[in-house]
Amino acid sequence: MKMHMLNKRRIFRKGILSNRAAGHTAATVSISILSALLKAMATVACIIVAVFFIIRIVPGDPVKMILGEHASPSEIIQMRHSLGLDLPLGQQFVRFLHHLFMYGDTGTSIIYNVSTRTLIAERTPVTLLLIVMAIAITIVVAVLLAMIAATHKDGLVDHLIRIFPTITLGMPVFWVGLLLILVFGVWLHWFPVGGTSGGLFGTLYSLTLPAITVAFSQIPSLVRSLRAQLLDVLGSDFVVTLKAAGIPNRVILFRHVLRNASIPTLMLLGVNVSYLIGGTLVIEQVFGLKGIGSLLFSAISSRDFPVIQGIALYCAVAVVLINLFIEILSGYLDPRLKGDD
Amino acid sequence: MSNHRTISKKGIIATALALILLLSGCAAGQNAGSKKAIKGGTLTYGRPASVTSFDLFKEITSNNAFAIDKVFEPLVSFDKNGKVINWLAKSYKVSSDGLTYTFVLRDGLKFSNGKPVTARDAAFSIKHHLSAGGPLAIEAKVDSVIANNKQTLVIKLKKPFTPFLAQLANFSNGIIPYNFDGKSEKQFFKKPIGTGPFAVEKWNPAGDLTFKKNTYYWQKGKPYIDKLVFKTISDDTQAVNQLKSGEVDAIESVPLENAKALSQGSDTKIQTDGSWVTEQVFFNTLDKNLSDVHVRRALALAINRDGLTKAVTFGYAKTAHSLLPTTITYNSDASVKALNYNVAAAKKELAKSTHPKGFTTTLLIASGNSAVKQEAQIIQAAGKAIGIHIKIQSVELATFRERFFAYNYSMMINSGQADFPDADSILAFQTDPKGFSKSYWTHYTNNTVTKLLYAGEQTADGPKRAKIYAQMQQILANEVPYIPLYYPDIVIGHRSSVKGLVVLPNGSVRFEDAYVK
């Protein structure tokens, strides 16, 4: 990661970003995309196998969770049989793969008796909206704070902004969520305490506090990185040249400095997306949101194998695709990275 | 049901409040308070888990049970004191030999689709439950179930089984239309039709559930509310916050640390009453150390149960002395000679054992419940005081069950709960070494206790039966296969504007008298 950053910085300074990309042959690009794709598929395959076996090796039986403590062994045996849980693991795995490739589904939920695909599809909009809102808030706030800090280097504002990440990084994200709920939900009644309600606008409104909470955990590292990038670019030769040419500071800042500095920051954000997804899962629980995260939580505690597998697969594919996208994008933006491979 | 919350003892204020609410909310009688009741509106009830099935014959966990009982109703039911009362049957008669039960259905009973309810429907339902078995299977040896005419159902038993009537009060003996109203079983339970106060309007097994009022309900003019929404809020703190902000009208799961604040809030109240639960420490009597009765007695004497109850339940529980909770008839909590806190006596008792100098053992608990964790720590300290070193093993619920089902534990904290209002429910599950639960996985075996258990099942209600259960509870208190710690209360939180909720000792709530002011 550091090596990549250094390379990028060097390139940005020289301002030769797009010229180098044109020099690359189409063949090299497609081969590298192909190898990235293959790697991604291998990763997903490993995840499928690992999740299938890990969740079955861990102690705990979905049937006993459904039937409780008062079910007789014959009841348990009967239900295990009807769910196919009494088959040898290998056979269960073959069945699972067959189902996955035939129907694109990891099976029917043991607890809800609904196909996993339906469950995930139902829950995706909330989670997706939350992630998008969180990213949007993160970018807006981080860019703003970083710009203020960079333009007031070593001033009071800069110091305050630099202290901010130190404090917030020490706050557990669920705690921040609870605090926001208490202040803005319970006391001030500005936002709903939890859940989502009524149409797109209602949903967006209900997701405001959770999105701020998720953003809160992402902003600090981004501010820090972006501020450093901005300062770096601000001190570079081309900025000095622009200044000498009499171009106004505001234009230099927005049109040249921010643009150059934001690319590595966006890369960092991209890398952080997996953490962001993880954070979202916890936050859904705190805010009582019916998204993928809360589904995963209940699925794990009740050992709902098909749902756990489905969500793991879904999240894995999402993260792998995002990483693949970033890899391809970074190759496109910074041709030198291809040389590193 | 099996979703046991650690609940607790009510304080004077809470009791007074509950009484006022019960009186104003017409909890005691079905007709009381109807003058004041406001009709219409929606009541939203926050619950920790979604309703995944309405199949009354196959379900047991509280998330489903407390939704099933809104749609399906049995011939007899129980009141808030656990007393068996007429429900769909306007009367019942038990023959003197205890073998024949005759039920007469109420006049003009209808299902939520408007079709009349007949004894044929009732016979079909009971017969189907007998063949389906399920986690709440009918334990009586039933000889025949016959609909004598449209309103009369006669059930004959092969041998007397006194708990039968109480068992029939269970939601699993609810009445469904004959032959699933002509649908397949699976189809029927997707759109269930029953006689209960509510019918399913919209249901997401992984989300929320909306009931609409059953306009054919047999209690005239009820329910008052038009809609009842079960909103799934898995996080307790989130549920409390939604109650405080008014996003829900009531919540099922109140963390005990929040109960007092809710009861004193300007917009919130709690309702609390005794439950059918006994929180206990269980001993694996096959364990090399705990098979010694003196060791178990020593531990019972070493634990300050009063102190423990006060420390972990915030006043929403009663200290337990006998196995049966005080809400169950024939409990001997007041009369049993229990091994009460006495460290000197505990040390003497241990000295009589095969481990006079103490030993090291483990205490298994399910994680995620702060009260249980505290209990474990108190028990650990009590053991240490007499030389028994207890290591606490905290595992996730699913793993916890796997462990004790396999007898892979030495000591554990768990709660025993009656499924129906009869002493036999808890006693059979916790003392019968021949039952699948093997005396609640303690493997406790005592022939006298087993004989008394069977005798109690066949003895008609009265002083003779009372004597049998008093004797059983005394033997259990002496031999300590488990230490009863406390009887937790049911605690339901609601907005001050909500009136008429009736909290039942199994944790369910009756909404037919409820309304929002």
TrEMBL record, chain A:
Compartments (UniProt record): Cell membrane
UniProt cross-references to PROSITE patterns, sorted A to Z: ABC_TM1
Keyword Cytoplasm: no
Keyword entries, A-Z: Cell membrane, Membrane, Transmembrane, Transmembrane helix, Transport
Topology of this chain in the membrane: Multi-pass membrane protein
Domain ABC transmembrane type-1 per the UniProt entry, residue ranges: 124-330
TM helices/strands, residue ranges: 21-54, 128-151, 163-188, 200-219, 265-287, 307-326
SUPFAM superfamilies xrefs: MetI-like
Predominant location category: membrane
Superkingdom in the source lineage: Bacteria
Family in the record: Belongs to the binding-protein-dependent transport system permease family.
Name of protein: Peptide/nickel transport system permease protein
UniProtKB/TrEMBL annotation, chain B:
Similarity section: Belongs to the bacterial solute-binding protein 5 family.
Record protein name field: Peptide/nickel transport system substrate-binding protein
Keyword Signal set for record: yes
Gene3D superfamilies, per database record: Dipeptide-binding Protein, Domain 1, Dipeptide-binding Protein, Domain 3, Periplasmic binding protein-like II
Superkingdom: Bacteria
Compartment annotation: Cell membrane
Keywords: Signal
Signal peptide as annotated in the record: 1-29
Membrane topology term: Lipid-anchor
InterPro entries, A to Z: Peptide/Ni-bd, SBP_5, SBP_5_CS, SBP_5_dom
Protein species of origin: Sporolactobacillus spathodeae
Keyword Iron part of the UniProt annotation: no
Family matches, as Pfam families: SBP_bac_5 (PF00496)
Domain Solute-binding protein family: 83-435
